[in-house]
Request: fold
Amino acid sequence: MREYRSENRQLLIRLGVAAVVMFGFGFALVPFYEQICAAAGINNLLQPDRVAVNGQVDETRTITIEFDANTHDLPWQFKPLQREIKVHPGQLVQIAYEVVNNRDYPVTGQAIPSYGPRVAGQHFRKLDCFCFSGQTMAANERRTMPVVFVVDTDLPAEVNTITLSYTFFEVAGTQATAPKVGGPG
Amino acid sequence: MAAVIPDHLHDHHHGPTGLMRWITTTNHKDIGTMYMIFSFIMFLSGGVMALTIRAELFQPGLQVVQPEFFNQLTSMHGLVMVFGAIMPAFVGFANWQIPLMIGASDMAFARMNNWSFWLLPPAALLLLGSFFVPGGAMAAGWTMYAPLSVQMGMGMDMAIFAVHIMGISSIMGAINIVVTVLNMRAPGMTMMKMPLFCWTWLITAYLLIAVMPVLAGAVTMVLTDRHFGTSFFNAAGGGDPVLYQHVFWFFGHPEVYIMILPAFGIISEIIPTFARKPLFGYASMVYATASIAILSFTVWAHHMFTTGMPAVGQLFFMYATMLIAVPTGVKVFNWVATMWRGSMTFETPMLWATGFIFVFTIGGFTGLICAIAPIDIQLQDTYYVVAHFHYVLVAGSLFALFAGAYYWLPKWTGHMADERLGKIHFWCSMVFFNITFFPMHFLGLAGMPRRIPDYALQFADFNALATIGAFGFGFSQLIFIVVVIKCVKGGEKAAARSWEGAQGLEWTVPSPAPHHTFEVPPVVK
Reply:
């Protein structure tokens, strides 16, 4: 049995290294999936969308775009400057939201868009948006922030109204907050 | 029969006695026994949680527990059964049987083996203790999906650390098994002569080394998201909750095979013994096990068909999943072919093994149905899925564990187990298992969601039936305690070869197996 000692130890080290590598692999999956999502255009939250170059405007259709704004545990006033607008698919449009930081200290937030109906999301191309990066608001600052977008001409025919809804989340670690409430309920 | 004990098989034990003997032991048989006792205690605690869940679901409305506690119960039932009961039980079998089967004197790293086991009780205390902290135990489901797991109270942190500790324990156990199987075999015991239980455990151990660290990584990311301001899964910080599911199921799907491959090994030992024929298609069994293990890395996203995956992805994972049915089918075919024209007798282990093939195959077929993406979108998170995985985990892994326990109890204790009680245990388990879980297929097809403490009135009858079955099943397991205690205390003396048709090195040592065996390696022809 003794002659196996060093052989066993060697195999132990190799398998141990394999386990450590696999622990790293779990973390490597994070950038890996980021690349996959970027390549496949899935869940593209932080980059401008690509738009067809020879964008034709489809004047025969008129789509109503409704705007909505929410905050999540954030002491901000956040509202769209227009409740809704009417656009033609393919038309370049700019609208704006307004944010007020009610607190007397700076706060950083990140806006996440969502769309209703869900299928409209992939046809709603944002060229510029305050949601592409975190927004740091100075104490009591008021800011008007634009969104530039185009609605694809291949939007399904049954969609006549699109709701664009933003929710501002606080980016963790930028200020002391009350500890998270424990447990469900 | 075992009257002649060669002098190298001395039975005396050196070192501390009493409690310290068990804490400091490096003997693979002692450690195997401790693993099994631990896993049975965890099995009972997980069972109490399951019965509380079923009591709540006996009638529509809320009677027994509040929804928050119900969520804690479903989550902890899953974690406790997977990491506390099934996995340590198989490691216990590996500890007892692998050195005996390959003619080694002990596991390769006896002290690490001791540590692997003794990490488990603190982890279990951490897990079960989380019921008593503010906010209660982890309640995000056993999968601990973000973003819910990022929001829970400190019970979640305790669960995360428990998973870390249990993960380290299984990785060390797995490394030990790989080294033992590869380096410690007796002269002449070539790889392709190895008992199939050793083969399936070798492959399982590789799976463990590959995926347990990935789970550790996933829960570490949850932990840093919760406390250290990272945003792996926090959409507001640029993360993505779906990422958690991808990382988790990269672990989670091979984990399914970690819990069933050793069961295949046990069944492949028992069927030939009681059919009194060598295993049909030994080599194809080995290759089938290996291909199941490799394929298990390519199917993880079949747990995620409803996350908005592109159709190409759904098709790939659907076909890859259905491909696993081929090697699994080979195994079932080989077991049945082993029985074909064998001189079969149905002692308790054989009853469990035959029952295993019957019910496990039902679970396999419902797995195929769940694999079909368009059907799965309907069945996702319904009781159909609950029925499916209990058919493979209870009727699969657990029945195989009972089969193995009845099969090797004579070797472990030196006494034959009570056949009559064993058979009653089997038939009660078999009948009540099906009463519990078969109606869940219908509930799931009708759309009853899982993990919800209340349900619509039309589900009432099947739920009442399932609850009656669950209590019957739960109390049937107490028979097993009686059998084991009786078997340890006395009973018919077991011969070295306790079963007439049993083959393999473990049957060449006396029963009970002496404290030290194969200190001089046997020669396998």
Q: What stands out?
A: Chain B touches chain A through 51 residues (CB under 8 Å). The CA atoms of residues 231 and 237 of chain B lie 5 Å apart. The first helix of chain B runs from residue 19 to 24. Chain B has 17 helices and no strands.
